[in-house]
């Protein structure tokens, strides 16, 4: 031992001993020993070594080292390099042996060996409370409080816990924090041993012994360790065990059995699998679920988002979490699998790129090279280093299987994994490898799903895909993957009931397979078959725009791949239907439907014909060909009856009922729908396969007729139940199909609150799924509800905008939406504009025979005439009389009451009270229900004003009879 010339401060009070490899460094005595023998160092070299060892694992800059070792002097870096070289020589630091010092180019130096702190043998027991060698805990930890509490409690009760999880999940951080939390429980006797840089399994006992300050007296100090620990109460933390897992398992098992007061906390990417071991699998930080709209406050409820914000802010950028970017941040955290290291590395760059650009970068290719903190261990500097660390610990068969599994997107079942991973290996070997990958945290297993699903973290998957591409096997594995999911979809499609919800979780894999099939390296024939087989899944998930993309590619490829007739039928059908709902009401889409119908007739597929007739009927309604739609529905009924398919015939009668409503034939409409509802299989059933139907379509159709014929209470009750049933299906397209057809009943009854809450969801879903026409209809409905709440300016703007967009898409029923617009304009005092608007609606309705709303249109025209700058009361009266005649001819008592009220008010205004009473009273008296509703209440009040005294008793008796249950 020599006393160092440099004057570093004495540290005798703490009795600190620093241990690394065969060395013990005593700062208070300024002494360093190798295997018990004093090592001769100069004072400056000792100070350098002490400074580096105390910051082991961290890069210490050259400037800081000079300031600590030569304070107040102006020496140059060359002097520092000379002393570092001498220190390396004294320690025996070489490329062929143990490494202690690392030069970080352009930055400084880092002490890379594992360092532990041990109490001096001579230290008094009263000083042992401060003998721990734990690294400093993080100043702030996000989302791990419960994990630390659970680990601490389990460790106290059970003595042996292994924290397991993938790289970057935060195992070391949690273990260190648990150690700090338990310091008092162990009177400070908590010892931390890092094994991450240990490549030699035989050295594990010596490293643990050295960390405890024991002198190695043999090649295997295990006996000395057990003797030393036998009667001591202590917590031993064995960190990063996976490089030497077998040796650690043997040592831990022996120590656990021999030392009853010893508690062991291990961290590893796989279990030690020894007696007494309890597992704590460290989960990713919770992230927001998919397709969730978040405010900033909502997002901060998730620990992954809080960590992201903390690291992004600490990086020195100008990032601020706002309502505008909260959903993007949530998406980033979810895409990063809630892995803290991945979140930290990504958040550090958000200031430079922005959240939206970061999502695009992740979509294109997960950046595995982003650098983290300079002070981090080398394996945690980048995502690539973290994953490569684990990858290099795998056996060659495990690496091969991991790379093959990288072809999966969003997870896989065990059956899928075996099918794609297997090659020449037998099934038992593949199962063992998959099980091993899960045990080593390279694969995550979700046992909560049925069947259980495996998943690679996105970062691991990106790394493994690079390895797969480099191996030359990517094309073969991608073909195998595509064929597996084609076979799966065809099996589901061939089963009775065809429940494609069962394979909804596989959509990411289906999309990936389609991408490969239609790529330059892909298999177009498999792509055509896969696109056709996936159509019901696209419709089940309401992904119609994407469906159009893939079926278009498949149709373009049909001739060159000799696709089958049935595939062509499915593809043409899907393209026509998808285009219709995405707002493309053109001959191109109609021609695809007609082509598909020709193919169904050619092969005698009656269910296929029925589905296509359903879609053609809807297309014709959308474009305003109402007479043609009636003929199409009649054709469908004939086809169904000819094939003795009575359920299909009932479905076609619903279409006939709908067509008759548009044409103003309400008695026929009711007859058709009631006949359809007699079929027991119709109620609430949606046919399997590609369909645009929705539950309760017949009930909503009947509810509309009931209101029009004067039964508002029955209509309201029926439509509320129907919409509740549709919402329970949790299917966006079904909701977007059903709500507009039901909306009129709510509107006619003045029950806007009953459906107003659904409209906002309707618009969001229609926009999300690119259902352009239905989105515009939803915006029109929203405008009408705003007008009903007297929010005139906002309502007029929204309704006008929706009508203009629908008119530009040639939407046929736009005349019905012009009517509430004209009525609102008239009520707001814009009589001239209201008249122009309703005249356009009436002209369009007459042109396409849209007679459903004609009585109300004529009533609104009369209102507009009365509110013109120069009112025309005579023409208004003529329009109301005409409207009354049309309503009576149609049997539309609901509309008749509206018109009669308006005409009675006009006659009352002209002093014709008796005529007004005699006209309105019989209309009112024909109602048997709904007397508390706005229309009938208005009529009752008006009749009370108009009623001659002689008629009071008769009217009261009539009303009382009408209101009796």
List the helices and strands and how they pair.
Elements: E1 18-20, E2 23-26, E3 31-34, E4 37-38, H1 43-54, E5 59-61, H2 62-69, H3 77-91, E6 101-104, E7 108-111, E8 116-117, H4 145-158, E9 160-164, H5 171-181, E10 190-194, H6 204-211, H7 222-229, E11 234-239, H8 245-258, E12 262-268, E13 278-281, H9 296-299, H10 303-314, H11 326-335, H12 340-347, H13 350-353, H14 355-364, H15 383-392, H16 396-405, E14 412-413, H17 414-421, H18 427-439, E15 444-446, E16 453-455, H19 458-471, H20 474-493, H21 507-517, H22 524-540, H23 544-561, H24 565-581, H25 587-603, H26 606-622, H27 626-642, H28 646-662, H29 666-677, H30 697-708, H31 712-728, H32 732-749, H33 752-768, H34 772-788, H35 792-808, H36 814-827, H37 831-848, H38 854-866, H39 873-890, H40 893-909, H41 913-925, H42 934-946, H43 952-963
Parallel strand pairs: 9-12, 9-13, 10-11, 11-12
Antiparallel strand pairs: 1-2, 1-8, 2-3, 3-4, 5-7, 6-7, 14-16, 15-16
Keywords: DNA-binding
Pfam families: HTH_77, NB-ARC, TPR_4, Trans_reg_C
Organism: Bradyrhizobium campsiandrae
Can I get a quick summary?
The protein has 965 residues and is of the alpha/beta class.
